[in-house]
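Query structure, 149 C-alpha cells:
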C-alpha cells in the first residue's frame, strides 16, 4: 500500500451525490495525492468521528477533516481542503477573510438542502482502482466495481 505525506482524512457522506462529487473533484484537482478518505457511515468513519467528539447525527450535518489530530468541520474543513487543491481552486482560500459565522451559515444552508438539490443514493461514490489505497476501509464497503455505500 502506498503512503501519503499527509495524515489528513476526509470523512464524508457516501450517500450524498454532492459529497461524492466533491470527493471526485478533490481527486481530480489535488496538488498531490495527500488526502485520504473514509465513508461517514462506515465503521472506520464512525470510529474516527467519535474519537474527535462527533456523532453519527453530527455527520448528517457536516463532513469532517481530521488533520494533525484536530477535527475541522463545515467551512474550516472546506478551507483546509481548498489549500490542497491546484490553482485556480486554491485561490478560494481567500474566503477565509469572511467571518466563520457567515461562512458556516452558508455551509449549513447548503448542507440542509443537499439531498433535495443533488440527490441521495446508495453506492454513489466510484473509487478509481488506482486510488483505492487512499480510502480507509474501502474493502469493507466497496464492491468489485469500486463503488462505496
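Result returned for the query:
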Amino acid at each position: 500500500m502506498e503512503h501519503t505525506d499527509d495524515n489528513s482524512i476526509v470523512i464524508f457522506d457516501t450517500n450524498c451525490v454532492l459529497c461524492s462529487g466533491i470527493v471526485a473533484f478533490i481527486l481530480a484537482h489535488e496538488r498531490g495525492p495527500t488526502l485520504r478518505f473514509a465513508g461517514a457511515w462506515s465503521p472506520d468513519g464512525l470510529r474516527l468521528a467519535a474519537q474527535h467528539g462527533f456523532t453519527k447525527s453530527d455527520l448528517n450535518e457536516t463532513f469532517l477533516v481530521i488533520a494533525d489530530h484536530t477535527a475541522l468541520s463545515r467551512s474550516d474543513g472546506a478551507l483546509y481542503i481548498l489549500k490542497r487543491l491546484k490553482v485556480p481552486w486554491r485561490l478560494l482560500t481567500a474566503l477565509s477573510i469572511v467571518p466563520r459565522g457567515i461562512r458556516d451559515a452558508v455551509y449549513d444552508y447548503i448542507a440542509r438542502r443537499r439531498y433535495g438539490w443533488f440527490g441521495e443514493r446508495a453506492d454513489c461514490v466510484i473509487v478509481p482502482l488506482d486510488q483505492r489505497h487512499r480510502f480507509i476501509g474501502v474493502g469493507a464497503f466497496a464492491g468489485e466495481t469500486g463503488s462505496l455505500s
